[in-house]
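Quick one: structure tokens for this chain, please?
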Amino acid sequence: MTTYHELGPAPFAALARGDGGPQAVTALRAAQLSRHLLLIGHLLRHWPGGTAERDTIADTLERARRAAPDRFAEVLSAPLVGSWTGITVRAAERGVAAAADFSQLCGLAAVAAAAAGVPADLPVPVRDGVLSVPGLGALSVGDATAARLTADDGRLSVTAGGDPFRIPADLRDGEPRWQGDDLPGWQPVRRLTAPDAPGVALDDVDPYRHGHHAPPANRLDDAEVAQWQAVFAQAWTMLARHLPGRAAELAAGLRVLVPLAQTDPHSARSATVRHAFGAFGLTRPASAADLAVTMVHEFQHSKLSGLLDITPLTDPADTRRYFAPWRTDPRPLAGLLQGVYAFVGVADAWRALRAEDSLTALASSRFAEARLQVDRGLGAVEASGALTGAGRLLAVGLRQRTDELLAEPLDAAVVAAAEQGLSASHRQWLDRNKAVAAA
């Protein structure tokens, strides 16, 4: 019998207000694991290699699952596993998936086996002289074109034409215990840390970390990583102090930051890929406040995308395009709802950051702008007539939260400036999109 993930009334109501909490986030992560496993099963059924290799991979995954279900789940539910499955399944359906795309599963199975403490020995792909060890790092293997990844007693070893290379991490405790990362050719995934925060991967090596509106950055040097670490620690402290509920959500669900290339020195960028729950890409933030708000903003996208994997919220037959105050282009209803949900978090974050003495004026201005943008966008969502039953319940929760944000007292001049800014944005949008506006 097929079973489906469902959210209970309480977690759904919490998510509908733009919050959620660790319980709801954990439920969304569980649904992502099921999604990843379904797509992996699809890839195995269409495996381009021999049946013996396919059966070995399937057996390795099953032995890991039986031996240590929680560690298996942690490996297979990782955000960039979602990116890989999404990219590879779409490519396979178009007939353009490379053998290395399928064989990424071999590395994933070996990592799961090491985490579960069961043995494995699988062939893994080499791309341009580099071998990916999912979630852990990448190894330069020179001219080798083939390699094997072996799991033994919680450790991984690579054989690529010479002596085995032992990956300097023990996986048996769930989180990798690093045992030296200065070995030639080995590029570990670095982790950002802060008091009372789980480690968050800063992944600049995974071959499936792309898909944002800016290319992923190449390998960061140690000085750059130190700057990321400093701003992350400051941002997390800020969140824990002023937005403890948001910090708890992030602790439950945020797993990976993907550094993006800084293509425009005057513009910061961030984006969440639809199928990478708990990860997002961004250029290095200019300040701790910027990162704190960006983490809230992008994780809102992960939460709503995770909810959409469980239940539809909008009618796909609606082809109209709408004004989104934070965008210059006309947006479909689903995109507008994503923006509304994200900016509820943005408004909430700037509201709370007014308590930082050095940020009061800036945060008040940004809060005033964001809450008006949410109100305008949500009004269009509510009036669309194209929401599902679950979508209407979500809109009710978002309206309650938005009205609370609008009721927060602010200086009249700050409110007036935000209103003028929204009006100007709408006029500019109408000028750019005359055909849509006239429809």
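The longest strand covers residues 147-152.
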